[in-house]
Design brief:
Strands 1, 2, 3, 4, 5, 6, 7 and 8 form an eight-stranded mixed β-sheet that branches. It contains twelve helices and eight strands. 39% of the residues lie in helices and 16% in strands. α6 runs antiparallel to α7. The chain has a single domain, classed as Rossmann fold (3-Layer(aba) Sandwich). Bound molecules: zinc ion (ZN).
Length: 312
Amino acid sequence: MKIDRSEQIRLMAIHAHPDDESSKGAATIARYHHEGVHTTLVCCTGGEEGDILNPKARNLVANKDIAAVRREELDNAAKIIGYDELILLGFRDSGMPGSDTNNHPEAFSHVPIEETIEKLVAVIRKNRPHIIITYADERDRYPHPDHIRVHEASVVAFDHAGDPKKYPDAGKPWQPSRLYYVFFSGQRILELHKKFLEAGKESPFGKEWIERASSWMGNDHIIRVDVTGYTHIRREALLAHVTQIDPESSFWFGLPDDVIDSVAPVDDYLLAKITDEHGNIVDVERLYGSNNPDDRKKAKAILNAVQGDLIG
Ligand SMILES: [Zn+2]
């Protein structure tokens, strides 16, 4: 279903921790904000378990509460990116995969998923976004328990927000029109790796990365959003997370913006769900994964119709 452009378009991105909004899709948000789209960031946890990854920042925060520091960093990054609104769901960071903090009784990944879904349904109904961006199921890539949770809860919240029978106390139903997964494609990793080598630099993408990236190819349903002129936003927003991001990191900052732009100034997404002309939800991800060629053809036609534009 075409999105009605006669009113202001609203976009909501759902992230797990402060800094995820900067590493994933920051340039896209900057572009759409600049084009007049209302942008909302939902951050599920406070990042309480974040390590200080920038050695120079250690002294700065020695006696401070890390959650308060990260809140300030998040505010700064959200401003740089161009988020109009920031909503904190207030859950507790579960910590890196496999760490003891995963078992903290209040850890986000332990909270009953129904509770998270209801909170997300409530913010969706309040903000009425046309577009929602969240994470794919990336268990095999980055199995952070909070990221897995964000995926699981937001996919269901997308379906339930428009259903008057679900969560009747969470506000007036609103059905968003598009659900996207922010995505770092194998193709993109290989392209960036090549640029490091061409520049005579050591690539942060080692053998393991390259092997994995090669196995992530073949996602022909990637949507590449043009972010020409906004590439620098990602770098600037990441640097706002002073305690979390090492400015010397070659992973984040090894290539100058113009070189990244010469690869392709794009952010990659997967289209997960869309509403049809009757307002029914079509599970594009399922159609793409189907064994039935007709399903895949249908998915391809939907994708072609929106290609290159999250609002398309
Ligand atoms: Zn995260």
